[in-house]
Prior knowledge:
The structure holds 2 protein chains of 2 kinds.
Chain A: E1 2-9, E2 15-18, E3 23-24, H1 37-46, E4 50-61, E5 64-67, H2 70-77
Antiparallel strand pairs in A: 1-2, 1-4, 2-3, 4-5
Chain B: H1 6-27, H2 33-41, E1 45-47, E2 52-56, E3 62-64, H3 65-78, E4 82-85, E5 91-96, H4 101-109, E6 127-128, H5 143-153, E7 168-171, E8 185-191, E9 197-203, E10 216-222, H6 226-240, H7 251-258, H8 260-275, H9 283-290, H10 312-321, E11 322-324, E12 330-335, E13 346-348, H11 349-362, E14 366-369, E15 375-381, H12 385-394, E16 409-410, H13 425-435, H14 439-442, E17 447-450, E18 464-471, E19 474-481, E20 493-494, H15 501-518, H16 525-532, H17 534-542
Parallel strand pairs in B: 6-7, 7-8, 16-17, 17-18
Antiparallel strand pairs in B: 1-2, 2-5, 3-14, 4-5, 4-13, 8-9, 9-10, 11-12, 12-15, 14-15, 18-19, 19-20
Amino acid sequence: MVKILTGNDLRTGAVIWWTGRDWSLHVADAGDVGDHGDVIAATENAARRVVGAYVIDAVQDAEGLRPAHIKDRIRALGPTVRLDLSLKPADPAAGDWVI
Amino acid sequence: MYRYDPYDTAMVAARVAEFRDQTRRRLEGHLSEEQFRPLRLMNGLYLQLHAYMLRVAVPYGTLNSTQLRKLADIAERYDRGYGHFTTRQNIQYNWIRLEEAPDILAELASVEMHAIQTSGNCIRNISADQYAGAAGDELVDPRPYAELLRQWSSFHPEFTALPRKFKIAVIAAETDRAAMRLHDIGIRIVRNPAGELGCAVYVGGGMGRTPMIAPLIREFVPLDQIVTYCEACLRVYNRHGRRDNKFKARIKILVHELGAAEYTAQVEAEFAHLLTLGIEPPRAELERIKAHFPEPALDAGGEDGDPDRGDPDFALWLDTNTAPHKVKGHAIATISLKPVGGIPGDASAEQMRVIAELARRYSQDELRVTHAQNIVLPHVRKADLAAIWQALDAAGLGTANLDGIGDIIACPGLDYCSLANARSIPVAQRISEALSPRSAEIGELKLKISGCINACGHHHAGHIGILGVDRKGVENYQLLLGGSEGADCSLGQITGPGFDEDGIVAAVEKATALYLSRREAGERFLDTYRRIGMAPFKEALYG
């Protein structure tokens, strides 16, 4: 199981993902943090870019990295009931992998 | 409705300035999240799944058109064009930026609103009957007393760090439209044999993981002692409520564990002591508040004739979504925020403006948010109902489904809430789409869905309740039958093993079909369930 790091942007509250060097709005940019997630989370929380950073399990498939748990998959895309507010509003397949 | 005096204005303005400074210090790094979190929660600002969420207080659900227009403006300017009306008669915004939160609080203050005490272990927004001041079956308008309690509980220094959150509801009618006995304190204004008004006080109700119906602990508290009595109830709770276990910290657990008789005895002793201290607000203060809630200026001299029922859709709405008003020739109209297949409780900024204009033009400039996530126009001339419905229908707000299968209460669930285990809204949408075409045939059926055990969707009190759970990372839904929040208050019972999303929709269809096949004349779903019991439903669901 791959480990990835997520949290919310301190200023905007937006869901963000740790790429290995910086934060991204897109889960597809997330990188495996291995055993270093908690250390990175502590550093980044202290740096005030992110709030509530935490490590989650993810799976790697042909489409890329996907959070293992439904709650984090919904965080990654947006509310399943308002795909017009999701990060990929123009993609009719957006959300197919969430549930 | 109540208008701020200079003290109210100054208090809210001071809080906005304080939070602006706290936010600045957080963004500049002078406050850690651990330090800042309780400060933002005191101002209703949560961090949810996708963003910050701001919960705005709507005291006892009452708004005027200026306030609703401001809520629409905030939705448009600071959020994503909509708001979500909640089961506590409040409104929530789901996409708030921390850096803009102080500006939003300032905007709210400009129309005498705030988000204070909409979170945290304090006394939350006081809720009330949404038909207050309009219903024919009420003794008095309960809102002046709710307002008095709001002022008493706001910034109350002794009760800002209770063992857990605390919710109070006030009604003054025989019909309980506010789920009064499912609150920490439920107050019903009553008349004693001497003809005097006072309060029957129920303490220790609630939903959540341990649902309880509040027992009556005092049949009659004189109206001019109600603040003192509530103070006594809170003091005993604050003294003995558990702080070691969050799940056993609500007052319902204390009342249950002490026993209602012992809890009551302690309250009575505290009450006797407090009476010697003279803490009740002066009568003049209550009279000042009451002056803000005059009888609505309605003309009772007109004709009482019903509107033309030529349009069948309008006639259905008239039958379903309007209720008798205490003044001849008038009605109470409920605007459903539950379009077929829609998101329960959501309203766009545009829809809020339509509703605000209707309130200004047709309803004495008043609105009520209901705990069932709808909006009420409380004082409408019957002659204006057709025009109102046409405007609502054009705005997608004309659905005729009050208290029917499509009028579903649903919490935000896993689509928005960080506490949720399963999604509520998609289940509500699918049930609404599947069964709304038969709504008239089914009649009154209150269906309530929660996405976790915290029960914000009131599933315990649904004629049909649905509880979403996490079953090894997969959404699963338990079905409950037989709950009710009204005068016939009862808690739903779980039918048996849970269902997946498809299964729970099918299960509701089966339960409804059984009801239709077994009901006797005049029976609601709840009546049939109470008469025939759980067994036939289990057989239909699992047999």
